[in-house]
Amino acid sequence: MLYIIAYLLFAAGPLLALIPGRRIPALLAWLLMSSACVLAGIQGIIAIAAGQSLPLITLSLPIIGPFDFVQTPLGGLLILITSSVFAVAIPFVTRDANLYASGRRGLFLGIAMLTLASMIGFFLAGSIVAFIFCWELAALAIWGLITFETRQSKPVAAGLLTLALSELGSLAGLVSLLLLASAAGTPQLTGIAHAVPEMSPTLLMIAGLLAFFGFGMKAGIIPLNVWLPAAHGTAPRSTSPILSGATLNLGLYAFLRIDAPVALHQPQLGLIILSSGALTALIGIIYALVEKDMKRLLAQSSVENMGIATAGIGAGLTFAAYGHPLLGGASMVAGLYHMINHSTFKTLLFLGAGGIDASTGTHNLDELGGLMKRLPALGSFFLIGAFAIAALPPFNGFVSEWLLLESLLRVVEIPDIPVRITFALSGALLALTSGLALTCFIMLPGSALMGLPRSTQAANAKKAPLTVVLPMGLLALLALLLGLAATLVIPVLSRLAATLLGTNPTASLVPDFFHIPSQVPMAIRHALDPIGASLGGAFLPLRSLVVMHLDQTPAPVVYAMSTLLTFGVLVVMLGSVWILVRVIRRRRVTRNTLWDGGLTRLRPEMTYTATTFAAPVRVVFQGFFHPLIEENEERHGAFVLTRSYHQVITNISERLVIRPSIRVALYIASRLAKMHKGHVNTYASYILVAMVVVLVIVASAGTR
User: Fold this and answer.
1) Which domain of life does the UniProt lineage start with (predicted)?
2) Is the pLDDT of residue 555 over 50?
3) 125 pairs with which residues across the strands?
C-alpha cells in the first residue's frame, strides 16, 4: 500500500511544478516528492525486518508472460538507500529546476521521479520481464537526466555513449537471463535461483559472465566504465548526487540477484568478480588522481568504490563456494557495508561539488581555492566527506574497507594455491587503492578549500544554498554514525547476507558480542581481553568492539576493530592538545616581521593546484596512462608568439577494448558493405544459394 501511495506522489510532484510561479510550486513539489521518498524508505525498512520474500503483484500478460513484483530483504535495503539519496538530493533538484521555464521545470522533475520510480520497480522485480522492463526504463530516465542540457554538445555525446553502452550491457544481461530461464523452465527469478544446481557448469559460467559484465556496466565495472566520468561530469549539477549515490547500485543489485546463485556453484566466477572488482578499484582511483574537474574526479572515485564493493561480494561468493559460508558472509557484509557507505559519502561530496558550482560558477579545481573561509559550513561538511571516502577512522569508509581487507586474509582456510594467489593479488590491489585514495582526497579538499583563491569566481564566491548545506550536514552526521555504530549495522547486513549464502555470519561468528548479557565462553573472553573485548560493555549503549571469531579453532579471531573506542581516543587526544595549548601554555602572542627572501607576497598561481599535486602520479603511471600531447602555437608570420601543450589521457578500457572493438566492427561492416554493391546476377546467385541451403535443411529434417 505504501508503494502505491508513493507512486501517486511521484506522479503528482512534477505536475505541481507546472503551476505558474516559482516558490509555491517548488515548495509543494518538494514536499510531495520528499513524502514519497519517506514512504518508500519505510516500506524498505519493513522489507528488511520481514526477512523473507513476499509477493506484491502477480500479472500474466499475453505473449510477454509473467510480470511479477516481489518484496525481498535485499531489495528493501536498496530501496531504503535509493529513497534516502533522493530525499536529501530533491531540495537541490527542485532549486535548480526553478532555473528552467515552467514546462521544462516539470519535465526535469518528472525525469528525476521516473528514475526513482523505475529503480524501485527494478528492486521489486520478480520475473525476467519486469526485471528487464524496469532496467530499461531506468536506463532511459538516466539518459534523460544526463542529456537534459541539450543545448550543449558534451551532455548529448555523454548521453549517447551512456545509452549505447547501457544497451550493450542490457543485451548481454538479457541473453544471460534467457539462457538461465530456458534451463530452469521458468521466467521467475526465484525459480531460476532454485534450479541453478541442476544446470550445466558451462551454461552457468557463460550466463554468469554475461550477467556480471552486462549488468555490471551500470556499476562502472571494467571494461564498460568509460561512460561514467563523461556522464557525471556533464550532467546537471543537482542530478550528480542521484546518479552516483543511487543509480550505480543498480548494477550491484543486478549481478547480486543473478550471479550470486550461480557463483555458489561456480567458484571461478566468484574469483573473476573479486579480481575484476579489485582491478576496477585501482584503475578508478588512478584516473581520479589526475583529474582537475571535480565532478569527473568524483565520478572516477565512484568507479573505485564500486570496485571495492564488488570485490567484497566476489570474495564472499568465493568463500561460500569453497565450503566456508561463514567467512563468505563476513566478506559479503563488508561489500554491502561499503555499498551503503559509498551512497552516503559520495552523495555528500557531489552535493558539495554542486554547492561549490552554485557559489562560484566553476568546478575546475585549478580555479578554486580559499573556499573554507568563504563557505565554512559547506567546506566543513565536504571535509568530513573526504575523510570518510579516504577511509579515515572513525568514519564509515574505514569500517567497510578494514573489514574487507581483514576478511581477505582468511583465504588461508582455502588450500587451493591459485585461489590464494588471486586473493593475495586482489588484496594488494585494494591496499594500493586505499593508499592512493588517501592521496586523492587530501588533494581534493586541499585544492578546492585551502590556500588562496586562484580565480575571481573563487575570490567572489557567493553564499552556499541551504538546499545543499543542510542535506550535507545530515549526510556528514550519517557518515560518522555509520562508522561508530558498526556493531548495530553488521547484524542487519548479516541477515541480508544469509538470504544470499544461506548462513548468518553474525549468528555464527559473533553471537555474543552483539547481545547483552554476553554468552562468550570464558576461555575466548580472556583470550580477547588484551585487545579490548570487555571495554565499554558497562556504559556504552551498544557493543563497541567488532570481534569476529571462530569457535573450536586454534586462532579464533577473524578480525577485530572498534571505531567507537577509536573515536573516544581521538577525542581525548585532541582535547588534551587543546587544553595544553589554550589553557596550560597560555601566553601572549608576539608578532615580528620575518625575512621574506625577496618574496613580498605569495601569489595564487604559486600555490599547489590539482594539476601540480597529481604530477608525481602522472610520472609514475605514465606508461599506464599512455598520454597524448597536443601542441598548440600561435604565430605571427615567421615568429612564434605563444606555444602551449595539453595532455590528453584516454581511459585504458577505451584504448584497449572499446576502440579495437569498434575498429573490428567497422572492418566487418566494410566487408559486408561490398555485398550491397554489384550486378543483379550477383544478387540472384545469393538468393539461389540461400534457397538451396534452406531446401537441404528442410529435406534433412524431413528424413529424420
Assistant:
1) Bacteria
2) no
3) 69
